[in-house]
Amino acid sequence: MTTTFYLINLDGSDLRLKQSTERLMEQGITFERIPAVLGVALSEEERNKNYSHKLNEKQYYYPLSPAQIGCYMSHRKAWQKIADGDEAFGVVLEDDFILPGDLNKAVETIKDLEFDWDVIKLAAYANRERPVEFKHKINDHFDIVVHKKPMSGGAATAITKEAARQLLASTTPFGRPCDTDIQHFWERGVEVLSLMPYPVSQDMRYESTIETKSHKKDKKPVKRLFQQISQHWLNNKAVKEQVKKLQQQLRSH
Questions:
Q1: In sequence order, what are the residues at sequence separation of 6 or more whose Cβ sits closer than 8 angstroms to the Cβ of residue 76?
Q2: DSSP assignment of 173-214, as one string?
Q3: pTM of the shown model
């Protein structure tokens, strides 16, 4: 069973492409390049085909920048490839990664999983840590982990064909940043796990070429706090249900 690796890379980011290619080649990994969407080059009409200002006002605490919209659209291109393909799952990489671990071994571990899954994070945003709700040893190399809140970031993610279809259907249009939308997994209809220790890390020497922070003046901290409080119990409930389901599946094998 083959697995395709999809690398999101902006046209003109030749150094990133070269370094990403070299890093993957060191582990014998080939990939399909996904030309990233440059949000600032899109017309307002093109952005609005995918991004909803009305949904953003309801769901998030500041308007997304053109770069963030482009980032989301880039990941949707990768999801579409997985959804349209014949493979059980694919791995989506952003081009600012390093490989401290064995990515091949991670993928082989995922192939051997004896339970259903949707999305597995293979890296953390800015290499951060997050409290763990549940952890299960898969083999001598990796644990499957459910965080108390799914890990953010999109540096490296394994996504099943069915989950890619569900993500595409549930984010048309979108109003939040891509990784934040996936954190709201109970709305997306998918479940999010992590394979740890992460085989992939972000190369923090890079500044993002397709995703930038919005202007501080556009952010609304009070609105953000209200959203965090209102969504906290929904997240906790969904995580506990996910853990219960996963434990049942593990016991049956």
A1: 50, 167, 168, 171
A2: SB-S-HHHHHHSHHHHT--EEEEES-S-EE-TTPPPSS--PP
A3: 0.93
Structural tokens at position 102? 């064995």
pLDDT per residue over 29-56, tens digit each?
A: 999 999 999 999 999 999 999 999 999 9
Strands 143-147 and 132-137: antiparallel
pLDDT of 124-179, one tens digit each? Answer: 999 999 999 999 999 999 999 999 999 999 999 999 999 999 999 999 999 999 99
d(CA 220, CA 19): 38
For residue 25, give the DSSP letter.
Answer: H
Whether the ω angle into residue 173 lies within 30 degrees of 0, i.e. cis, is yes
CA 92 – CA 116 distance, rounded (Å): 19
Following CA atoms 240, 124, 225, 62 in sequence, which dihedral angle do they give, to the nearest 10 degrees?
-130
Tokens 């952005």 belong to: 47
The β-bridge partners of 156 are 93
What 3-state DSSP class applies to 94?
strand
